[in-house]
Specification:
Elements: E1 10-20, E2 23-34, E3 38-42, H1 49-56, E4 64-69, E5 72-73, H2 78-83, E6 85-88, H3 100-111, H4 116-122, H5 138-151, E7 156-160, H6 168-183, E8 187-191, E9 201-205, E10 211-212
Parallel strand pairs: 3-8, 3-9, 6-7, 7-8
Antiparallel strand pairs: 1-2, 1-4, 4-5, 9-10
Helix pairs in contact: 3-4, 3-5, 4-5
The structure holds adenosine-5'-triphosphate.
Adenosine-5'-triphosphate binds next to strand 2 and helix 1.
Length: 213
């Protein structure tokens, strides 16, 4: 399953406060996830979804509160945490001169695991695998980014708008991929304004400041 991951995994965040510029974005947000669970972060534009995902990914420092992976504050060993976590944000993380295959190989080599061929197949990228990423369509770029989730598996997925630019076929494909990840004992925290059908997902509503429903 997930190399080097402990049998029991947990992600907890408590009392998170985020201030951006001089604005309080959210206050006292809390969440918890264990193996097989997913949480959908909801909220209107500007409610702080991206900010929360970046805080939980360890990319943005909260004004207060903490994020713990298996009970240990992620600030204690950020490198170890990054090894268990895939963050895919709004922006694509592709080098435009490298092909889709080369981009995936770069990421999976960096992570020390290589399931590139499987990732290309699952996200139906084989036909365009050897085209430079810079000339791919928005949806093809998005699928190449998402294929990193399979090319170098990690137990925790943190995904910001993972299905933007995808047509209904690929939204379904992603939903199946997410469901398989959860069935396999993975976890996911994500935000999307679009409709995504995945069973057993919990919700975190930031409109009220970060209270879990
Ligand atoms: N780098 C920054 N500096 C200052 N303020 C910022 C910065 N980035 C975001 N903000 C502000 O933080 C607030 C939350 O932004 P965030 O992107 O987290 O919201 P969001 O819920 O993801 O929005 P959307 O649904 O529009 O993507 C917004 O008011 C935004 O203007």
């Amino acid at each position: 399953m997930f190399a080097s991951a402990p049998l029991t995994m947990s992600l907890t965040a408590t009392d998170l406060t985020c201030i951006r510029g001089d604005r309080l974005v959210f206050d006292k947000a809390a969440l918890s996830l264990s193996a097989g669970q997913a949480l959908w972060v909801k909220g209107k534009n500007g409610a702080g979804k991206t900010s929360l995902l970046r805080v939980v990914a360890g990319l943005l420092k909260p004004a207060r509160g903490s994020v713990c992976w298996n009970g240990i504050d992620i600030r204690e060993d950020p490198d170890a945490y990054q090894g268990h976590c895939h963050y895919i944000g709004h922006q694509d993380a592709l080098k435009p001169v490298l092909t889709a295959r080369e981009n995936l190989t770069f990421w999976s080599t960096y992570a020390g695991v290589s399931r590139v061929a499987e990732a290309l197949e699952i996200f139906e990228l084989s036909r365009i695998a050897d085209m430079p990423a810079g000339i791919l369509s928005a949806g093809q770029k998005k699928r190449t980014n998402l294929a990193r989730l399979v090319a170098s598996p990690a137990p925790l997925w943190i995904l910001d708008e993972p299905i933007s630019s995808l047509d209904t076929h690929y939204i379904r494909l992603f939903a199946d991929c997410l469901a398989a990840h959860l069935k396999d004992g993975g976890m996911a925290l994500f935000a999307t304004h679009q409709d995504l059908q995945v069973d057993g997902v919990g919700y975190l509503d930031l409109n009220g400041g970060g209270t879990r429903e």
